Amino acid sequence: MTISDTLVPFAEAVQRYEPVIGLETHVELGTRTKMFCGCTTTFGGEPNSQVCPVCLGLPGSLPVVNRMAIEYAIRIGLALNCSIASWCRFARKNYFYPDMPKNFQISQYDEPLCTDGGLDIIIDGETVRVGIERVHLEEDTGKSLHVGGATGRIHGADYSLVDYNRAGIPLVEIVTKPITGTGAAAPVVARTYVTELRDLLRSLHVSDVRMEEGSLRCDVNTSLSPRGSGVWGTRTETKNVNSLRSVERAVSFEIERQAAVLDAGGRIKQETRHFQEDTGTTTPGRSKEEAQDYRYFPEPDLVPVAPSREWVEQIRAELPEVPSVVRARLLVEWDVSELEMNAILNAHALELVRETIAAGASPADARKWWLGELERRANQAGVEPAGLAITPVQVARLAELVSSGALNDRLARDVIDGVLAGQGGPDEVVAARGLAVVQDDGALTVAVEAAIAASPDVAAKIRDGKVAAAGVLVGAVMKATRGQADAARVRELILARLS
Amino acid sequence: MELTRMTAAELSAALARSEVSATEVTQAHLDRIAAVDDRVHAFLHVAADSALAQAADVDKRRTAGEQLAPLAGVPVAVKDVFATKNMPTTCGSRILAGWHPPYDATITQRLKQAGAIIIGKTNMDEFAMGSSTENSAFGPSRNPWDLAKIPGGSSGGSAAAVAAYQAPLAIGTDTGGSIRQPAAVCGIVGTKPTYGGSSRYGVVAFASSLDTPGPFGRTVLDTALLHEAISGHDPMDSTSIDAPVPPVVAAAREADVSGMRIGVVSELSGDGYQPGVLSRFAEAVELLESLGAKVTEVSCPHFGYALPAYYLIAPSEASSNLARFDAMRYGLRAGDDGTRDAEEVMALTREQGFGAEVKRRIILGTYALSSGYYDAYYGKAQQVRTLIIRDFDAAFGQVDVLVSPATPTTAFGLGERTDDPMAMYLADLCTIPSDLAGNAAISVPCGLAPEDGLPVGLQVMAPALADDRLYRVAAAAEAAFTGRWGQPLLASAKGLDS
Amino acid sequence: MHLHSNDERAGREWTVTATVTALLLTACRDAAPKMACMPITRDEVAYLARLSRIALSDAELDHLAPQLDQIITAVAQVQEVAADGIPPTSHAIGLTNVFRDDEPRPCLTPEAALSQAPAVEQQRFKVPRILGED
Q1: Residue C64 pLDDT > 90
Q2: Residue of C nearest to B304 (CA)
Q3: Which of A64, A103, A297 sits opposite B236 (nearest CB)?
């Protein structure tokens, strides 16, 4: 058992080996109720307060399919260009685990709802089509707290406490076909795919897809094929990949690790590994003596699902535009360049900009704020711009206040402080902090007079025609008014006064 | 007449006319239980307090002039596989000893809503696996005809309760014959409704695609009344049929078989059948013919494979259904002394909590579903199932109902087959085909076998959703037989002192 | 194999023969992969018990294996049936598309949910330690 893995540097590894990757993504659906019962799905309830005989798997309980979950899954399948099954069934996946009330999971096995689609992603300006093998529905498990061990980890725990509130939450599993031919770009491809998928799912309004909260979960499969051999390698499955960055790092690490094993003449063990956030490495999962045999068979408590073609077409007709189509359209509508559009995308701000414009801001203003001040603050806080405590509607209002002259840029930043601190919307913060631009000439004149009186030599220069010196007095007035003066107006007043 | 000797229909009428109160009726049956159940052992739990409370409520409502359902005030015994809220529900197993469900099965709710009196929970083979109640963790029940004989299974307690006059009505479940076979060997009536005709919500699952809750009664009409009360669509059960309940009560009252085409299944006869059973069955067929039915012989060529197919499908589904009994959320927890991990506690609990037959079937089912074996076993059995359905379809193209003995032998002795699982399975030979096909079937008494003086059951089978045909034929047979015998069959039962 | 039931009082004897015999003798007619002509071994039974989370004792294993072997040999008879092109039936009733609306329904109180639990802590089901899993 090695303490730390030997690694082959990435660039070298991808020269001699061809990576093949695959991604399995689980999405928690945003339905009101669970997959097979009427318990609510709201997050964060008291333990075991959102359970019933069905999701607790009590003896005698029976599942009934949530129609909305089927609809959401079809929506996802259509958006991923899949074929929607005309007839399919649920199946039981049998295994024992304390967070599984029935010790089987109702899932789909060889009859998934959606099959054989694809998602286009852009890598370095080139379109890469990621094949989608299948999309199917299943139910989530309960959650365990492990007590007694270090840091609440399962190893070394004395016992566990199980909460079944999340048992039965609808999950959609999206499995890609093996992705080949990516070479050194494999880690980026993986990350970009998950990002694009996430944006797509968000646009479908089927989930809030927050990786940090677990409503979007990713398992990454990696294998290496010696270049030119045509022989596919053994793949490993890496779990616990909780962010987009981790997706990229996990693939990268596995390539380096597997290359070293193969270089040394060893064989890759087909296993499940865990991604370690802190070190960016993967570690082997618990080795099992016997491979899992899930003994799948059709779920006898449920009847087949046969979505009519009419229903499928109705869902297709109601599909929102796919993000890539939206982007192409907005490029024209907002009159921005590809570069500018990429900047928006890289800042993960497309939806935000869109919604800000929808709330009344101009495209230029929306971009200015989201790609400027707000992106900076998001990076500082280590979150995505969407994670900031300010809404597009609020940003639109802010832009309006600035363009009407009620605020200047400097004051606007103070307003942002207030909004992010939870002090309310822009108008409330302005009122509470008294941040409005002083537009009253009378008040400004008083400040101007004071500044002139305080710097007679500067005033003299201005009278002599050295207009540039006015800047000093403007600064003084701005300082005196705590930045709440309109600098241009102040300058006008000074020059008028000293001419 | 003693209240416990009255039929449910007679009690219903007397209650409706306020000739007797629900409290009196209930008390009379509780007294009868107290008098004989130490010998019969039909009940695992006698719900005296709640039954009397229910009865008092019915009496109050009737006095207030409320219009009540036909079964209001009539006692019903409930097989311990049905969830009854805050009342013990053990399924005949140690692993659920002490479990009080926090909810009612749909059928339990319907009985309560109808005002029926749930008088107690009856004994059963553990998790409905068995044909004699000898697989109960709490000791077998005994046949009121002869206390040394089995009452059938798995719903043996319910059948014994009715046959011993402890309740006029009972409910059970039929997966491979577990209502019809006990009814036959106890000399009463028992029906397996069309699969999906009665809700499985709250019925602890044995084999999900086969389990069918159904009624027991001493008469065909009583059984029909209960059948109607518990049946109908349930949105909590995805396999529940959304169609009107077939007119079983009307059919039971009409009892007219003239012109009906009746098919005798040629495969359900011959070697392995007790001669006395076959002769009583033959007489029953002649009787039906004399009543105006047209009788022919029909072949269902794949019925010989029904037993092996069943003993693949049922254990497979059971092995999965019983996985939830793992000591984590309810039921027995063994060996949790701080030294064992969750898996060890699970395995020890299941080892101690499950009986031998349950373990046998779980392992058999796990085998049949396991990777590499699925196609040859479970997959193949499901194909055989299709062929059996086609046999039935072809047969019902020629006849309105099929008939056969309900079971190859009369009640065998306690302990006689407990060492030989396969011999025990043979009790289901005649009943299994209907379970696999999801059809409706009934067992109605057709006499006593000359060899041993024990009851023989006539099985009638009808297409799915044609449950009423069962009652039409059974009621006609019952009327004609009772005429011939001069009294109901049960009146001659000697196992208990009158 | 015969099963005899002697009703000594009646002096009659009848046997249950053909069905059981037929079940046993005809099972091994055709060779097919993983057919149950091979008796199920004690080791296989032990593996299945582990898979089913039942801690069978050695005595039970000794007892159970031959019984299961006999049963499996008998149920293997289904393989005799020519079933090419016959679709399997998982449901006798032909229902499809049974759904419910995405509307909340009353659930159990935590007290009710936990009332039957062997052990409770912090309003959760307390279970023995779980070994590391993925």
Answers
A1: yes
A2: C19
A3: A64
Helix axes B8-16, B22-40, angle to 10 degrees: 160
CB pairs under 8 A between A and C: 144
From chain A residues 80-109, the ones with a CB under 8 A of any chain B CB are 92, 94, 96, 98, 101-104
Q: Which residue in B has a C-alpha nearest to residue C127's C-alpha?
A: B328
B329 and A101 in contact by Cβ < 8 A? yes
CB A296 within 8 A of CB A92: yes
Question: How deeply is A292 buried, as exposed, middle or buried, from its count of CB atoms within 10 A (0-12, 13-18, 19+)?
Answer: exposed
Domain A441-497 coded CATH 1.10.1740:
no
DSSP state of C87: P
Q: Burial letters for B17-31: b for 16+ Cβ neighbours within 10 Å, e otherwise? A: eeeebbbbbbbbbbe
Please state, for a pLDDT cut of 70, what percent of chain A lies above it. Answer: 98
Find all residues with CB under 8 Å of B309, minimum gap 6, and list them: B381, B382, B384, B385, B388, B436, C75, C78
Distance CA B445, CA B189 (A): 7
Share of chain B above pLDDT 90, in %: 95
- C54 and B359: CB-CB below 8 Å? yes
Q: What is the pTM of this model?
A: 0.86
Tokens encoding B327? 């000591």
DSSP state of A84: E
CB contact under 8 A, B320 and A94: yes
C-alpha closest to that of B214 among B128, B94, B90: B128
Residue B494 pLDDT grade (very low, low, confident, very high; cuts 50, 70, 90)? confident
In the numeric block, which tokens belong to residue A56?
């607790």
Compute the nearest-CA separation of C42 from chain A (Å).
Answer: 17
Residues of B marked as catalytic: 79, 154, 178
Interface test with C, best of B234, B345, B380, B393 (most C CBs within 10 A): B380
Tell whether B102 lies on the interface with A, counting CB pairs under 8 A.
yes
The answer to whether the complex's ipTM is over 0.90 is yes
The chains in contact with chain A, meaning 3 or more Cβ pairs closer than 8 Å, are B, C
Domain interval for residue C43: 37-78
pLDDT 10s digits, B310-320: 999 999 999 99
How many contacts, defined by CB atoms under 8 Å, are there between A and B?
Answer: 100
Question: CA–CA separation, B458 vs B407, rounded Å?
Answer: 9
Q: Is residue C61 part of a domain?
A: yes
CB atoms within 10 A of CB C40: 22
- Extents of the domains making up chain A: 10-298, 321-407, 441-497
Evaluate whether residue C43 is within a structural domain. yes
- Helix, strand or coil, per DSSP, at residue C81: coil
**Pick from B164, B284, B171: nearest CA to B230:** B171
Domains of chain B: 3-302+386-492 (3.90.1300.10)
